[in-house]
Amino acid sequence: MIDDTITVFWHDRMLDHEPPAGTYKYPSSPMIADDERHPDRRERVKNIKAMLDHALPEATEYESPERATRDEIERVHDSEYVDWLESFCADGGGRIEDTTTGANEATFDAARMAAGAAMAAARTALDDDGSVPYALCRPSGHHAQPTCADGFCFLNNVAIAAEEALAQGADSVAIVDWDVHHGNGTQEAFYDRDDVLFVSAHADHGSWHPEYHPQEGSLEEVGTGAGEGYTVNVPLPPGTGDRGYDVLFERVVNPIVREYDPDLVLVSAGQDAGAADPNARNLATRDGFLRLGEHVRHLADETADGRLALVQEGGYQQSHLSFATLGVFEGLLDRRVELEQYGTDDPFAWLEEPTELVDSWLDKAVEHHQEYWDLE
């Protein structure tokens, strides 16, 4: 059972990763007089850490992870890709062809540290010491595929953590990905396997690059061979908010994970579904993320004897990210934090969600996945 403490796996080396300069996530343009920094900026995770230190200081302890080794990384990633990434960063990095993803000389080492943090969180969950293990990862990982970087991600932290859990003796792992973008890299890593269940709820953005991101995250992508049915994609319409995410878990995520009955629940925790996030169009608030924390806490208690770990993914409005992530931990720890000036409010909660549209999309998801799972 989960108690009232958080073990944060963190190392300052993860701050040294820096994407190339440009016009936000794109190359510089003569139409833009002053470039805007890339959305994967270090302030994102610095603000999460500040939130933990300010709002939950008595509940939070930090541990420094070890870097993932080549052998551990290559449980997920092809050796040729790892060689290329290491060499690319050693040569100074840069933008990867015509994508929005780029690196500097520190990125490979920072990514190894992030993967090590995710592995440490998974091991801590399996040890069942009662705390909530949280890998505060940067760079993120869930878009990184076995053979390529993608979507600001280089090594797939949550997939490497799942492989570590299996190597440590777990028979099965459920990965719940609530990042507003489809976890295509995680899907790719386990698409033909049944020892890892992958459930991703995300905006219906489809493929964003024919070579580096061919996956669409559609209902039809359900796995292949032994893995058929164990990839569960749930596209969500623009404007999905607190109620929509709550219904998503009640109707799809909770019953599927309960039926799967894993030994460990891992969460790809990207808090980029808020109204202010520049890379999304959804409306989740601090209260909505609190409910997500409650859902995965109950799922872990019911199916995995409380074995649960969180791995940080996206979230690009660096101020709202703190409020949203606080909500997650409020749900996980079953407590509310009164913030000076804000109380328990979310200052970014200003729009209403289109409930009928959300319900119709979830109806389609339930109907589609009923072929493999007992859904109503």
UniProtKB/TrEMBL annotation:
Belongs to the histone deacetylase family. Residues 38-329 form the Histone deacetylase domain. SUPFAM superfamilies: Arginase/deacetylase (SSF52768). Pfam families: Hist_deacetyl. The keyword Metal-binding applies. This is Class II histone deacetylase. The keyword Metal-binding applies. GO terms for molecular function: histone deacetylase activity; hydrolase activity; metal ion binding.
